[in-house]
Amino acid sequence: MYTALSILQAAACLVPASAKLLGHPKMQKAAAHFGIPWHHYRLIGVAELAAAAGILAGLWWHPLGVAAAAGMVLLLTGALITHRRALDSAKEMAPALLTLAITLAYLAIALTSWSVTHA
Question: What is the mean pLDDT of the chain?
Fold first, then answer.
């Protein structure tokens, strides 16, 4: 279960990261909608890419995966605040909410499985 959730979590980070880093028009439109300069918005993609790498590395070293997921919780919280400030609908916030749910599930399983093996 942990491995499958790690892969799902990494994918949930990689999809938006690649769209931002490749300059997908939808991401450029989102940056403008939020009032974030494009070069700053692309840095979010770098953070998402780093999180994906950290989560996959967490398959071998749990603390790194947990740290990466904790960083994603902060990033996604910021995303939800940004959506809220932009008066976005629940539908527009859904990807961030879904990714947050996956991230929290990953953290719960990662912390539980790590504490069980290190008790």
Answer: 94
Amino acid 2: pLDDT? 87
Please state, in angstroms and rounded to a whole number, the distance separating the CA atoms of residues 4 and 109.
11
Closest by Cα among 94, 86, 8, 12 to 49: 12
- Least Cα distance to 38 among 57, 56, 21 occurs for 21
Tell me whether residue 36 is exposed, middle or buried, using C-beta atoms within 10 angstroms of its C-beta: 0 to 12, 13 to 18, 19 or more: middle
d(CA 65, CA 84): 28
Judge whether residue 119 has pLDDT over 60: no
Convert 107-118 to b/e letters by CB count within 10 Å (16 or more is b): bebbeeebeeee
DSSP 61: -
Radius of gyration of the chain measured on its C-alpha atoms: 15
**Type of residue found at 31:** A
